[in-house]
Design a protein that fits this description.
Layout (H helix, E strand, L loop, with lengths): L1 H23 L5 E5 L10 H9 L3 E5 L6 H14 L4 E6 L2 H8 L5 E7 L10 H7 L7 E3 L5 E3 L1 H7 L6 H9 L6 H5 L12 E6 L7 H10 L3 E5 L5 H4 L1 H14 L3
Parallel strand pairs: 1-2, 1-3, 3-4, 4-7, 7-8
Antiparallel strand pairs: 5-6
Helix pairs in contact: 2-11, 3-4
InterPro entries: AB_hydrolase_1, AB_hydrolase_fold, Sec-Metab_Biosynth_Hydrolase
Pfam families: Abhydrolase_6 (PF12697)
Keywords: Hydrolase, Signal
């Protein structure tokens, strides 16, 4: 009798553990998108529309680009507002932001899109110096902000977008504070979280060789897209596919 009860009890515990594991292993359904320098969150519209259509909860961070610390706070605020864990996606400088913000326990994985993947102690400027980009269009203002030369914006930043779209992006660009590019990351979340990287092979704003180097160093699952620095705008389906793969392979 006692043996029968023990067997029944063991079966109940095993079934409970199985159901618990299945619940824990559910794919992540929250995606937080982080833009980079000279852009804003509207660039994610195509990707966000696809993700939303496919059943994901999407949050687009409008970080102020006043400092790395401020941008990490804005991203953390978005992560905390989501119900459950999230995949953090960063474009360009957004990679700096998600590398720091990704240490939040509610972040299940990271996706870098033509983005910087710093190690602890590295700033954006440190990484640029390793492998400079083809473009020399980034300039500084007298009061400590950066801007992208409008005359070179289409060719060097958004070559695979229609000229009219690139022109509007150029005239509406966000000018980040220089200190955001100078600030180092304190802890690299890709060392403890799974990561994916999209390399833009025709990128003139971030050296594709640097993108590959950082992705390899982080052991990121890597996909290459034949696109400019804003390939996520020009090729939203390809970018959304990688994000969805990351969500499916990460767990709550």
């Amino acid at each position: 009798m006692h043996s029968t009860k023990r067997i029944a009890s063991s079966l109940v515990m095993a079934l409970a553990a199985t159901f618990s594991h299945a619940a824990m292993a559910e794919p992540v359904k929250n995606i937080v998108l982080v833009h980079g320098f000279f852009a804003d969150g509207s660039g994610w519209q195509g990707v966000a529309n696809i993700l939303t259509r496919d059943g994901f909860n999407v949050s687009v961070v409008q970080e102020p680009e006043t400092s790395l610390a401020d941008d990490v706070k804005a991203t953390t605020r978005a992560v905390e507002a989501m119900d459950g864990n999230s995949i953090l996606v960063g474009h360009s400088y957004g990679g700096m932001v998600i590398t720091e913000a990704g240490n939040n326990p509610k972040v299940a994985g990271l996706v870098y899109v033509a983005a910087f993947q710093p190690d602890a102690g590295e700033s954006l400027l440190d990484l640029v110096k390793k492998m400079p980009p083809a473009s020399e269009a980034i300039k500084a203002t007298a009061d400590g902000h950066l801007y992208f030369d409008q005359a070179l914006f289409h060719a060097d930043f958004a070559a695979d977008l229609p000229a009219a779209d690139a022109k509007f992006m150029a005239i509406s660009q966000v000018m980040p504070a220089v200190q955001a590019a100078q600030s180092p990351v304190t802890q690299a979340s890709w060392k403890s979280k799974p990561s994916w990287a999209i390399v833009s092979t025709a990128d003139r704003t971030v050296n594709p060789g640097l993108e590959r180097f950082m992705a390899k160093r982080a052991n990121s699952k890597t996909v290459e897209i034949n696109g400019s620095h804003v390939a996520f705008i020009a090729h939203p389906a390809e970018v959304a596919k990688v994000i969805e793969q990351a969500a499916a392979m990460s767990v709550k």
